[in-house]
Inverse folding.
């Protein structure tokens, strides 16, 4: 049996979204590598013996509980699940275990994962960077769908024939987030120099400015991003689709920092925005055909791709009414999508 986790603070009534990261049966280099790849995530805490968990801090409360004491070594999902079943225990949305499979694969460092809410404890594998990016959006209402998506993409459940080795099968199985882990510039969250204000998404699309070097270029970009399309709209029918955030507090903010502070409108009577944020960065402010960075907030979180500015309004509208999904806009061969994906990314995009 693994040790009991500390209870949450007595005044913590509402559920705090988050994840539990456990060091199971993996060696020191593998464990340290996992922590480096996950980055300095907001709300990361290590349990102190005999003390309750600290209160969740930050503009969007969340918690990443890191359990790495020697009593945890060798634990399996069933044992961790039993520890979380106590009435006073904080139940994370996702459990991640660094185990022997993490040690065996130094390229991807896959973690064994399961959802505490899943009675069957369906196991799947996810890379540290994919897990970190998922943690940044664990507060969003779509998180259950995102986690189900990860289960499908990195399933670690199989019926073996007699004599077959589970470890041999596992080493060749899919891992959710393999593209993120092997990218030339993999995503990595680092804390901003100063806390960023929370963005409450109220409109169908969301455009956040992070470069403040050229006001004229920005004004033109913001106008083009939500410009009326005369082929399908008239001036009488026009209404803004894109919510613009023009706040110097976001100067130099990274995509990971932005995605971590976007929340949906909690008013059930209001139409909520889509699971994507568009960023106008330094690259967006130059060139004759400017592009913006599109960052999904669901499914393959952590991915990003560039899109022509004049496509932003159309993307927001089509995503909202369900004419297509975000993978259609990543389609390298589509006239309406960007040519920004490699062949490996095309094949690795789940549901392609």
């Amino acid at each position: 049996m693994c040790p009991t986790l500390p209870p949450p603070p007595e005044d913590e009534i509402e559920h705090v979204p988050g994840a539990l990261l456990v060091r199971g049966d993996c060696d020191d280099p593998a464990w340290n590598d996992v922590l480096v790849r996950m980055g300095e995530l907001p709300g990361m805490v290590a349990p102190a013996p005999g003390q309750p968990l600290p209160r969740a801090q930050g503009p969007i409360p969340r918690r990443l509980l890191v359990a790495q004491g020697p009593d945890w070594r060798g634990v399996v999902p069933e044992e961790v699940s039993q520890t979380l079943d106590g009435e006073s225990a904080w139940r994370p949305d996702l459990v991640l275990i660094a185990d022997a499979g993490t040690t065996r694969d130094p390229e991807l460092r896959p973690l064994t994962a399961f959802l505490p809410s899943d009675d069957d404890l369906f196991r799947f594998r996810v890379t540290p960077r994919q897990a970190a990016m998922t943690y940044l959006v664990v507060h969003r209402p779509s998180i259950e769908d995102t986690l189900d998506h990860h289960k499908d993409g990195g399933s670690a459940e199989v019926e073996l024939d007699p004599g077959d080795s589970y470890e041999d099968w596992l080493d060749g199985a899919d891992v959710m987030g393999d593209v993120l882990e092997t990218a030339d510039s993999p995503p990595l969250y680092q804390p901003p120099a100063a806390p960023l204000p929370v963005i409450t998404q109220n409109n169908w699309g969301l455009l956040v400015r992070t470069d403040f070097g050229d006001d004229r270029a920005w004004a033109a970009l913001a106008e083009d991003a939500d410009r009326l399309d005369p082929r399908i709209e008239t001036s009488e029918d026009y209404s803004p689709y894109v919510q613009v955030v023009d706040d110097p507090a976001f100067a130099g903010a990274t995509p990971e920092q932005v995605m971590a502070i976007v929340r949906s409108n909690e008013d059930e009577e209001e139409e909520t925005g889509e699971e994507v944020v568009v960023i106008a960065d330094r690259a967006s402010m130059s060139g004759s055909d400017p592009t913006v960075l599109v960052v999904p907030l669901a499914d393959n979180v952590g991915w990003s791709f560039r899109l022509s500015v004049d496509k932003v309004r159309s993307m927001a509208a089509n995503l909202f009414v369900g004419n297509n999904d975000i993978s259609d806009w990543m389609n390298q061969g589509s006239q309406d999508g960007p040519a920004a994906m490699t062949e490996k990314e095309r094949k690795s995009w789940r549901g392609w």
Q: What stands out?
A: The two ends are 41 Å apart (CA to CA). Residues 28-38 form the longest helix (11 residues). The mean pLDDT is 85. Residues 24 and 73 are 4 Å apart (CA to CA).
